[in-house]
Amino acid sequence: GAVVSQHPSRVICKSGTSVKIECRSLDFQATTMFWYRQFPKQSLMLMATSNEGSKATYEQGVEKDKFLINHASLTLSTLTVTSAHPEDSSFYICSADSRGALTDTQYFGPGTRLTVL
Amino acid sequence: GQQVMQIPQYQHVQEGEDFTTYCNSSTTLSNIQWYKQRPGGHPVFLIQLVKSGEVKKQKRLTFQFGEAKKNSSLHITATQTTDVGTYFCAGSAQGGSEKLVFGKGTKLTVNP
Q1: Which of B31, B33, B37 sits opposite A106 (nearest CB)?
Q2: Which end of chain B is less congested by CB atoms within 10 angstroms, N or C?
Q3: Confidence tier at B97 by pLDDT (50, 70, 90)
Q4: Which residues of B touch A44 (CB under 8 A)?
Q5: Contact (CB, 8 A) for A49 and A80
Q6: φ and ψ at residue A53, rounded to 5 degrees
Q7: Are the beta carbons of A95 and B42 separated by less than 8 Å?
Q8: Terminal Cα-to-Cα distance of chain A (whole angstroms)
């Protein structure tokens, strides 16, 4: 079945540094990928919708200059947390939409745990 | 690792019929969440269950968390065309990292 991978699964960085998280669809093409953030014991919060070849659409309250999203190919989207601060520490999950493919469903990545010291 | 199985994968019903989707975890969960994704949209949070045996209702939707906190169900009474979409469950392992593991979803279609 379709698999979505995320890399890294866990990252610890110093305040002020930038962190890049990759989301890959491994055996299908994803024209649309979603990026979520999850705070402890809370639900997913949609951050942005990433469309291949175009600019991402950010949800209200999400800083696009802070969370840079690049969807360079049909199988890869990246989220870069720029100048990370401790309040950016969170669990980030991507999902890939196989809309248009045979299965036409949503697949979630395993998530990336970001800890900013 | 922790796995979350969801059945059925697809369900087609006539409008007015009931619908149930089931979620089973390989490990005991600290909580379970349910999401609904409308066609063309993104998954939207519906509810979170935390307590063993918990039952919560949202209008025609009834959510249950099993006594052993390893399974959950979502039941829709008298489906309507607006219920169309894919329903996902997601659970966090008890005593674990609170990482959410998603089921593969149940796609519901409703015939008017």
Answers
A1: B37
A2: C
A3: low
A4: 33, 35, 43, 45, 90, 100
A5: no
A6: 80, 5
A7: yes
A8: 37
Please, what sign has the CA dihedral across residues B60, A59, A81, A7?
A: positive
CB distance A75 to A30 below 8 Å: yes
The model's confidence at residue B79, banded by pLDDT at 50, 70 and 90, is very high
Phi and psi angles of residue A79, each rounded to the nearest 5 degrees, phi first: -120, 120
**Tokens coding B27:** 């490990």
| One-character DSSP codes across A33-77 | EEEEEE-TTS-EEEEEEEETTSPPEEPTT--TTTEEEEEEETTEE
Contacting B residues, span 22-51, partner chain A, CB-CB under 8 Å: 31, 33, 35, 37, 40, 42-43, 45, 48
pLDDT tens per residue across span B1-55:
778 999 999 999 999 999 999 999 999 999 899 999 888 777 888 999 999 999 9
Residue A13's SS3 state is strand
Q: What is the mean pLDDT of residues A33-50?
A: 84
